[in-house]
């Protein structure tokens, strides 16, 4: 293992230095288990809220507790807006990582502030 570290440092000295000194870290404030939803949200930042349709994650981020989030997931499943499989994944994340694993709480004026 040590040999691999040496070789890595020789090949990528600047990257090795950043890793060892913990510089340039980026905090992750939310987790999306659906890749396509995450990608669409990332690309949506160009035209922030033009024709914006909130998804289940947006609704969950407005919740104060897990019970409210469960109700949102149940409701959207019943309406057919999310699949049962996706609902199971959301509930699993909710139970294992908590409500804020979906992102920070969206307050009432979130969209008018343009965040």
Describe the structure using short key phrases.
56% helix; mainly alpha; 115 residues; 0% strand
Radius of gyration of CA atoms, rounded to a whole number: 19 Å
Tell how many strands the DSSP assignment holds.
Answer: 0
Strand content: under 5%
Tally of contiguous helical segments: 7
What is the helix/strand order?
A: HHHHHHH
Report helical residue fraction. Answer: 55-70%
Domains (count): 1
**Helix- and strand-based class?**
mainly alpha
Largest sheet: none
Mean pLDDT across all amino acids: 81
- Give the termini distance in whole angstroms: 45 Å
Uncertain runs are none
Question: Secondary structure elements and their pairing?
Answer:
Layout: H1 2-11, H2 13-21, H3 35-43, H4 56-60, H5 66-78, H6 84-97, H7 110-113
Helix pairs in contact: 1-2, 5-6
Quick summary of this structure?
With 115 residues, this protein is mainly alpha-helical.
